[in-house]
Amino acid sequence: MSKVEVKGFEAKYYDRLMDIVTFGRYPSFIEKAVKDLGLKEGDRILDFGAGTGRNALLMRKYIKESGEIVALEIGDEMKRQFLEKTKEYENIKLVDRRIDEKLEYEEEFDLVFVSFVLHGFIQEKRDIIIQNAFKALKKGGVFAILDYNNFNIDDSPFYIRFAIRKVECPLAEDFIKRDTKEMLKKHGFLNFEEHFYFKNYLRLLKAEKE
Fold first, then answer.
1. How much is the CA Rg of the chain, to the nearest whole Å?
2. What CATH number is given to the structural domain containing 139?
């Protein structure tokens, strides 16, 4: 059911396709979303489902040389592009690990970031991913989810309904219908902060590990 593991043509031209389907708005959108993360120089980031490295390069501008990004990705084409884009930066590291299986990181990171990945898993796997994030974060660290907001799909415009039900991963609708904040609360996250984009259909949801 899931389309979260992008392969083939779509993986090879992923960044370009994202720019095309958003009519050129994706670059400015992702730059704004990364700015809204509130990163600081020296932060350590764990990037779940890191993709082509586009996000990692944007985040590095804020954490600078003293920070570090540990990026988890399993797709062969995505890893190839990631390594090519980030090869000159020693503080960006790529690890071939699934995010929906138990991870060994414990209280090491200031931020765990997941971008348009969480919706592509069944709920049982989402819970594992959230627990991995909680465990990996330092006290006071932030889990940031850039993904669909929770909204009533039936009340949305036809193009949103079409995209979710005909184009997107079949699991996206299930994710949208659930209360993501309640999902996070079950694992101990509190103090939510939200930033909305594309007429509130997309959201950066930040939650703190107290």
1. 16
2. 3.40.50.150
Tens digits of per-residue pLDDT, 49-67?
999 999 999 999 999 999 9
> pTM of the full predicted structure?
0.94
Residue 199 in any domain: the answer is yes
Q: Where are the beta strands (DSSP E) in 73-122?
A: 92-95, 109-115
Distance CA 88, CA 70 (A): 15
Total domains in the fold of the chain:
1
Q: Which domain holds residue 191?
A: 8-209
Identify whether 3 is part of a domain.
no
Question: Measured between alpha carbons, how far is residue 203 from residues 97, 141, 148 in Å?
Answer: 26, 19, 6
C-alpha pair distances (Å), 107 with each of 97, 137, 144, 158: 18, 5, 16, 44
Please check whether residue 145 lies inside any domain of the structure: yes
Tens-digit pLDDT profile for residues 104-157: 999 999 999 999 999 999 999 999 999 999 999 999 999 999 999 999 999 999
Cα–Cα distance between 109 and 46 in angstroms, integer?
7
